[in-house]
Amino acid sequence: MKNANLYAILRAEFPSELDSLAVETDTGLRYSWRDLDRASAMLANLLEKSGAPRGSRVAVQVEKSVEAMCLYLATLRAGYVFLPLNTAYQQGEIAYFLGNAEPAIVVCSGKNFGWVSKIAFSGTETWPGAAAVYTLNDDRTGSLLDRAAHCSDVHSIHVNESSDMAAILYTSGTTGRSKGAMLSHGNMASNAITLKSYWGWKAGDVLIHALPIFHVHGLFVAIHGALINGSAMLWMGKFDPAAAVALMRRATVFMGVPTLYVRMLAEPSLTAEAAKPMRLFIAGSAPLLKETFDAWRERTGHTILERYGMSETVMLTSNPYAADSRYEGQSERRAATVGFPLPGVALRVCGDDGAELPVGHIGGIQVKGPNVFAGYWRMPEKTAEEFTADGFFKTGDVGKVDERGYVSIVGRSKDLIISGGYNVYPAEIESAINDLPGVEESALIGVPHPDFGEVGIALVVPKKGVALDSSAILATLKSQLANFKIPKRCEIVHELPRNTMGKVQKAVLREQYKGAFVAP
Ligand code: MLC
Ligand code: AMP
Predict the structure, then answer these.
(1) Residue 159 confidence (pLDDT)
(2) Is the CB of 421 under 6 A from ligand 1?
(3) I need a surface site. Which of 6, 46, 268, 385 has the fewest CB within 10 A?
């Protein structure tokens, strides 16, 4: 039987010349394919020494580094489940994720070891706590590497079935706490294989890796894409637009959220000449504005390829790289569309009654395919709610398919703000604000922003007779929540507009504040 372990599938595509360049960092470090294989083997041996059973979770909140990527690969190869956590998450958020996922091993930055280890070792009523907490810093220090240095660099990849869980990605919900989307080796391998051919990856491709590695885009789409093509990566620890433009002379593929494109467009060094060696620019995670798409084409001569995906499904649709035989005569990358369903993905648009809508009609996007996750970690009811009887996943995105087959996303049925490619769930922020003394109620709305695409504005109603201070509210939120979730503005208002059913009319508020950061 063929091993369905994702690492085995990626490893099979490493170049035969194992000493050639696999990753070069912006700090001047160079890693060969052999280095990645050896480091992931040593780390896998260390993880296995814990004696944790296969399927145990390895929770990781560390700064971006090649070693952190090797830890991901090690987790795969040892048959454990990788749980990446945004570095911006604060103590309360981390306590929830660890308590819910019950990891056997936790890896954090050295500077956070004090509070992370306290949470990880304390455990909960159902969880005895982690067996080990290691540190890993972006300067190649920390107890994880110290300990792994004593482990063998020979490791045989665990044999997995395609349905075995490989990662849990937490995604928030419109109501309630975050849910862990369980992705299998098969979900991710099928997507990586499909994208390799759909995006025309070829020998000699070099990827500029500019995104964080704790979400689908940077961790899966970008890393799997390069590894499964045996392509080298030029690795940016933190995105810097001028440095990204300078790297284009040595690269062929770039992936980014729209904010990265907006920031690079502000660089005078971005010219057609600078972008000439590049083959493909890919955007996703948030809507790419037509003006960004047009400006990029005008300035560089390249047409950005926009695609659509999510934590629960990895990639779902893509504009064509080249002609797609399924869509005769349609090989154009179109602004404000996310292209066609990827080969193997079934996508339909349905009305509120669940019936499929005809071409051109707007409704809820539902999907099915080998890339779609099995369900939410230990939340069978939530999982059942999000799938239809015939096995389609309800994405919560609202869109349409036109007569040529192009999918467009026109809105979301989930109350969600996407800011610079990060998801902010208003229910979570409102609940934190409502818990503050003197607050009667609040609403968080998303408004257009020139850099982040969309940002949150909080409208807060004080309790009768209380004088609230908006900067004090923001300061308190900052101490509790990840920084990208903090509203960019907070207004104290007398009341919130409501409809006859008593529901807050967020559309009215969005209209009122739409010019807060951009000229209306
Ligand atoms: C940073 N800040 C943000 C923010 N990022 N505010 C709103 N939205 C964001 N995305 C704030 C910080 O809180 C801080 O505020 C200030 O901006 C500067 O912080 P920073 O860390 O220096 O920011 P910067 O490095 O400039 O980060 C911006 C960014 C980053 C665009 C590079 O947000 C980023 O890497 N985004 C990519 C997210 C991503 O990978 N998404 C993929 C999800 S996967 P203050 O007040 O403290 O100074 C997915 C599925 C799919 O969606 O389809 O791909
Ligand atoms: P996440 O849960 O962080 O993976 O975010 C997934 C969500 O990002 C999707 O459900 C969409 O709402 C949004 N998204 C991803 N790609 C795009 C895109 N190209 N255009 C618009 N929205 C997108």
Answers:
(1) 98
(2) yes
(3) 268
Least distant ligand from the CA of 319:
2
Task: Give the ligand 2 atom nearest the CA of 395.
Answer: 10
- Flag whether pLDDT at 174 surpasses 70: no
Q: What's the fold here for domain 1-23+32-160?
A: Rossmann fold (3.40.50)
pLDDT value for 414: 85
Residue 2 pLDDT > 70: yes
Determine whether the shortest distance from the Cβ of 247 to ligand 2 is under 6 A: no
- Over residues 184-240, the pLDDT tens digits come to 999 999 999 999 999 999 999 999 999 999 999 999 999 999 999 999 999 999 999
Query: Where exactly are the structural domains of the chain?
Result: 1-23+32-160, 417-513
Q: Which residues contact 3 (CB under 8 A, 6 or more apart)?
A: 9, 157, 159, 160
409 Cβ below 6 A of ligand 2:
yes
Tell the residue nearest (CA) to atom 23 of ligand 2: 286
**Among 14, 5, 17, 13, residue whose Cα is nearest residue 44:** 5
What pLDDT score was predicted for residue 176?
63
CB of 192 closer than 6 angstroms to any ligand 1 atom: no
Ligand nearest to the CA of 312: 2
> How far is the centre of ligand 1, averaged over its atoms, from the C-alpha of 315 (Å)?
21
What number does the ligand 1 atom closest to the CA of 216 have?
Answer: 44
Q: Whose CA is nearest to atom 8 of ligand 2?
A: 285
The contacts of residue 507 (CB under 8 Å, 6+ apart) are none
232 CA → ligand 2 middle, Å: 27
The secondary structure of 354-369 as a DSSP string is SPBPPTT--EEEEEES
Kindly report, residue by residue over 295-348, the tens digit of the pLDDT.
999 999 999 999 999 999 999 999 999 999 999 989 999 999 999 999 999 999
CATH level 3 topology of 417-513: GMP Synthetase; Chain A, domain 3 (3.30.300)
Question: Which residues, in sequence order, are CB contacts of 297 under 8 Å at separation 6+?
Answer: 303, 304
Q: Residues 43-72, buried b or exposed e (16+ Cβ, 10 A)?
A: bbbbbbebebeeebbbbbbbbbbbbbbbbb
Which phi and psi angles does 172 have, rounded to 5°?
-80, 170
Indicate whether residue 422 lines ligand 1 (CB < 6 A).
yes
Q: 513 CB less than 6 Å from ligand 1?
A: no
Q: Is residue 172 lining ligand 2, measured as CB closer than 6 Å? A: no
Provide the mean pLDDT of the chain.
97
Expressed in angstroms and rounded, the spacing between residue 420 Cα and the centre of ligand 1 is 5
Strand partners of residue 442 = 460
- State the Cα angle at 482 between 481 and 488, rounded to 5°: 90
Helices (H) and strands (E) in the chain, counts: 15, 25
